[in-house]
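--- STAGE predict ---
source: upstream dedup step, 1 unique chain passed
mode: sequence only
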Amino acid sequence: MKRKGKDGINSRGKKPGKAGMADKTRDDSVAKRMMEWFRNTAFYSSFKDIDMRFLLVMAFEACFVLISSVMVKLWAFSIEQKGLQVMGIDLGNVLSTAPGAADSYLSSIKEFIMYSVASMFVVFLALLLLWCLYNALVWTTILRKRLTFSYYVFFVCLHFPLALLTLIIGLPLMLMVMFLMFVMQPLAQTPALGYFVALPAIILVIGPLMYYVWAFVTYAYYLFTQRFYDYRSAKKLKDIRFSFSEVMHKIGQLYVAFVVMELVFFAIFHLYYLLDLLPKVLGMVLGFALLLAYSAWIRFYFKQVIER
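--- STAGE serialize ---
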């Protein structure tokens, strides 16, 4: 082994070659450039952008999930109770004792159907308003805007054309994803094909297609919220049209972001195996918190991607 003396001369009396020093300098510069490039990525900046807003977004998500779950369960319980009242009537006994009771029984069925349809519409409308309020709170918090009643009204109006366009775009994509999943299912049963064919196809093709619909809606939310406060109220309706035009032109540039979000989701998904080692209740709470954190993070990450 060569050893250097105090004067920089090795044990064989030779100074270190310039080629070795140049290689070392080149390696240091490459590593420095790579680190600088990583620090300028949207992925790294998304974590730097996290502050108290991140916890607020997680709180909004938790409230939306809990409130919507309670609403749906209460509606299902009321439908079940109404149905039991109708089904509990012994029609044969009623007709034998009171022949004219058939009309009353039919009116009970009609009332049950009308109640089911009307209550379903009311619950759907309430969930839509709750969904709009939830996303309005999320994006005004992320973009440091002030939530106003005017913004909320226009934000609700945004969802009528947005729902139609999402259905037009999302339905073919969902059919394509279902077809690809059907094709990949036999390959996933073989370990070698599963790791080298099915898994890359899911990460590079199927996953981005599923994120495409989410990104379309989220991009519209971002653009609408960002531009809404820059114009007078007379021009605010134009923000909806602008959001759709920007989404249609720029959504194709977000493929790399989709892959990154999916890789992070796979990493979080594998953490669930560690949660099985914890008590059941604690594991469920931590798993729910991980999903909330991921849902909040992809919005901060998507914001950084859009701004770049």
